[in-house]
């Protein structure tokens, strides 16, 4: 199979990730933080080491600012639900994933929070003046999708962070599609919280993800229970990461996630980014005039995501043919982001989404181009 659905989860993984997961599953079998014996301590060290790798990767100040979750959705829910109270005002973009829109809508309906959407230009880039204008005295949080998971629009985090920092408003960034592709410096960019997937651009296993939370921000925990520390208290620990990590950790997955970060560091972000953009350029050049592309017109400030439609054909029909006839895996439909589709006018048809990975080749893109042309002609 030609796999071009890396925006959902990266596949295949680097060989060192497979080996790391197998090794950890066989050798790190104790429960980290739930025992004083040597193996439990070794498992805790394994988790700490990956925490340190993530800290360094995003330029965080402390490992205590890195929380492990099962995915980006859990991280976003923790960040949003953990900081917002009744009467607060939230601003989100019109390109958000349901992992943002649904918890915010739940808060709006159940806790009477105020919600605004910042405006975008025709390519999906946030109009900074509008964002600044919409911030009010009771604005608590701005939530921004760094890279649209549907259209690839990559927002200017530094400019957005400057606005929120000047206004004293918290900035939560959804980095599911960008981390592992674009360099993120949470301190320089003014990011207060960053949600990320372990299994997408970071090339780790499914069931891994995380949330960076600036150390002076104390969130209401999304879940409570055993943390392996402060067991005498009915309250969870006062600070992260233990405050937000109740329950047994995914030691093998977190260890393998660290191996994914190692692979990215060895390859270099510039090399990975260049490779993925070259694949997208090949696709755009090969299908120009044949399909309708959406989103940014230039590869500059675009993430490793592209969406298009073939005439009036349902996007799901095209994807089905690519899968069953050509053995090519793409994604079609609404991609869990109806707000983005509504903005670009594709809510009814959906889009065919191609998200190449580090292991895809120009030859595979050419096969996709040929398949699309044949589908059009049939």
Automatic annotation (TrEMBL):
UniProt-listed Enzyme Commission number(s): 2.8.1.7
InterPro entries: Aminotrans_V_dom, Aminotrans_V_PyrdxlP_BS, Cys_dSase-rel_unknwn_funct, Cys_dSase_SufS, Cysteine_dSase, PyrdxlP-dep_Trfase, PyrdxlP-dep_Trfase_major, PyrdxlP-dep_Trfase_small
UniProt entry tagged with the keyword Transferase: yes
Class of this enzyme: transferase
Catalyzed chemical reaction(s): (sulfur carrier)-H + L-cysteine = (sulfur carrier)-SH + L-alanine
Cofactor(s) the record lists: pyridoxal 5'-phosphate
Gene3D superfamilies hit by this protein: Aspartate Aminotransferase, domain 1, Type I PLP-dependent aspartate aminotransferase-like (Major domain)
Disordered as annotated region, ranges: 223-244
Keyword set, alphabetical order: Pyridoxal phosphate, Transferase
Domain Aminotransferase class V stretches: 2-368
GO MF, one example: cysteine desulfurase activity
GTP-binding is among the record's keywords: no
GO BP terms, alphabetized: cysteine metabolic process
Superkingdom, natural source: Bacteria
Family named by the database record: Belongs to the class-V pyridoxal-phosphate-dependent aminotransferase family. Csd subfamily.
Protein name as catalogued: cysteine desulfurase
Native source organism of the sequence: Anaerobranca gottschalkii DSM 13577
